[in-house]
Write a structure and sequence with these properties.
The protein is of the alpha/beta class. Helix content is 30%, strand content 17%. The longest helix is centred in the last third of the chain and has 17 residues. The chain is globular and about 60 Å long. The chain binds adenosine monophosphate and magnesium ion.
Length: 363
């Protein structure tokens, strides 16, 4: 609770969750209108975005936003991202719109970049966790955009899953943890991006700072701003070029939850520091059913039947699109251990290293 500093988790009474399928390329206006009505009435709607499924509520309705926290069991000190239709709507909830925000919005919106800016007083404390800033983005998914436009209001939406569990990239993943806790799920098929947006703070008195790495890389942001972007110390270094001096030069910004266990499957996840196959064989030898997130060109032949191999793409976009579904699928088998082959050390893999590192934090 932002006022008392305590970690409040209250789960609501079970309810009926409605499921509506929508065409992801051309969402049916009547179905979008139905979902928008639910939002305007203070209800909770899960919807696909280009990153993961979001759990939406009318962002300026404090009661509705508090229902998100109840449904997810999300600690109230973790603020939520507000989704808007365009930069003009973003400007209605912020107290300042710096040039950097304008340049980044022109380049990356709609898309998976979230900007953290000073908030206006009408943004409820529930959205910002009582803090002075609000996080904003314009999603590019047709269903998300149509829903926000039809609702006519900013939509607060964290990922549509119980807090700390694996993020949902399919409607079935949403139902796995939120069925009976939310009003409606719009099923628009798999999310193309597969991992959460990049969260970038734009403080008035310091360098832009990546609070959470995502699909848009540090290099892409630096190219637009023409200046150095620092990475929050809670975030793994993005490349050999990103020196630890530059990261520690960043003023410590509020980014709750950055070091906690997050995005985690039920089975313990182990990140192989060397050869993944050797680690997999060792677990299998101890009698564990073992899932292996191997690269598709790795040798996965002649392993025991207790090993389930998931072939992952060698490119970060392809890997991101599949990672959460792969973790959901391995949990559903189930397996006792999940081993991930070591990811490359380059900037374009930073967001994926971040997600796997957090998912591997032990219970
Ligand atoms: P999720 O809701 O799962 O997509 O996570 C949202 C992320 O955005 C979390 O890491 C939050 O801590 C971060 N976030 C949201 N609002 C703010 C804010 N005002 N300042 C800093 N980080 C924020
Ligand atoms: Mg989340």
């Amino acid at each position: 609770d932002p006022l008392t500093g305590t970690d409040v988790r209250i789960f609501p009474a079970p309810m009926e969750t409605e499921l509506l399928t929508v065409n992801p390329a051309a969402p049916e206006p009547d179905r979008i209108a139905r979902a928008a009505d639910v939002l305007r009435c203070g209800g909770l709607v899960a919807f696909p975005t280009e990153t993961v499924y979001g759990l939406g509520a009318a962002a300026l309705n404090a009661t509705a936003v508090r229902r998100i926290f109840e449904a997810k069991g999300r600690p109230s000190h973790n603020p939520v991202i507000v989704h808007v239709a365009d930069a003009d709507e973003a400007r209605t909830v912020v107290a300042a719109w710096p040039e950097a925000a304008q340049a980044l919005a022109e380049q990356f919106w709609p898309g998976p970049l979230t900007l953290v800016l000073p908030r206006r007083p009408e943004v409820p404390d529930a959205v910002t966790a009582g803090g002075p800033t609000v996080a904003l983005r314009v999603p590019s998914h047709h269903v998300a955009l149509a829903l926000i436009r039809a609702a006519g209001v900013p939509v607060a939406a964290p990922s549509a899953n119980i807090s700390t569990s694996v993020s949902p990239t399919r409607a079935a993943h949403v139902l796995r943890t939120l069925d009976g806790r939310i009003d409606l799920v719009l099923d628009g098929g798999p999310c193309p991006g597969g991992i959460e947006s990049t969260v970038l703070a734009l403080p008035h008195d310091g360098p832009p700072c990546i609070l959470r790495p995502g699909l848009i890389t540090r290099a892409q942001i630096e190219a637009v701003l023409g200046r150095e972007v620092v990475v929050s110390s809670g975030t793994p270094q993005t490349s050999p070029a990103s020196s630890s001096e530059s990261a520690s030069a960043a003023a410590p910004l509020p980014s709750p939850g950055l070091l906690e266990r997050h995005y985690a499957p039920h089975a313990p996840l182990i990140l192989a520091s060397g050869d993944g196959r050797t680690v997999v064989q060792s677990f299998a030898g101890q009698g564990f059913r073992t899932g292996w997130l191997a690269f598709e060109d790795e040798d996965s032949a002649n392993l025991p039947p207790s090993v389930h191999v998931t072939a992952m793409p060698r490119d970060p976009a392809g890997y991101a699109a599949r990672i959460y579904a792969a973790l959901h699928d391995l949990d559903a088998l189930p397996v006792d251990r999940i081993v991930a082959s070591r990811l490359p050390d380059t900037d374009d893999w930073a967001a994926l290293r971040d997600r796997l590192k957090r998912a591997a934090v032990p219970r």
